[in-house]
Amino acid sequence: MVENALLRKPGGEDVLEEYKSENTLTHSTRRHLVNILTSHMTEMHGRIVPRQQKEKYALGIITLFPSLKDPFSPKGYLNQDFLLLFGGETASKMLEKWDTAFKYKVIKEAKQLTQSKELCRLLNAAEKPTENDDTSKSGRKRSKISASDAVEKMVHFHKSCCSIDEHLRGRKGQQPYILAAGRTQNKIDNFYIVVDKQLIPCQATSSLGAFDELFKSHYVFNLSYEESLVQLYTFVQTTVYNIDVTTTDESPRIRELRAKLLN
Q1: Which of 98, 145, 143, 142 is nearest to 118 (CA)?
Q2: Buried b / exposed e across 190-215, counting CB within 10 Å, b at 16+?
Q3: What is the pLDDT of residues 171-216, one digit of tens each?
Q4: What is the value of pTM for the model shown?
């Protein structure tokens, strides 16, 4: 299935030839492989691809390209590709360390900020376990936005009875964000990553797992951070995932916060 998809799409044969000659794929070719298969899944199964189909594509990748097999995450091409880029230790940092090493320290720091109704609402949400989370299911000046506007750029709730296609047509911009679909905001059934109006089902069934995949999608698809969220994503990149810590342009506030959290 994966081989047929590659043979049908522009650049697919180049992916096959590179693997045949090198027994591996470069980072850029891996990203191209993911893009081709994402497009193929959408064409074959619509924007909402069933989980079992997604797992078939993941199995198809490691069957056709056995040297790319990911021993840490046998299902899901997004996590698999991020693993190929950075390795298992880095890829697992968010899910392994957020609740134990970061969450409550970040909440503690937030409580020391000037309080507002908006901040109090977000703190209450951060401290209260949700039903979904308890189931298995730079140096240059940046634009400033409110916390609620930042949330809107990162995650959007979609009522499951409404048309997802209509939502996608109405959204602007190419930076990825989370689409949480469910009957209510406290009862999310599925998470998706939206990239340039393309819908990618999340492997995760929790909000933390969905954010983990959202962050990784920037690297898998070689995308820049949303300008107004650069400080947040940079903090996550350097402090949580420890990616390019010494070479990334960070604000003094990020370095100060990292020192407080880690010391």
Answers
A1: 145
A2: bbbbbbeebbbbbbbbbbebbbbbbb
A3: 776 789 999 999 888 889 999 999 888 888 888 889 999 999 999 9
A4: 0.67
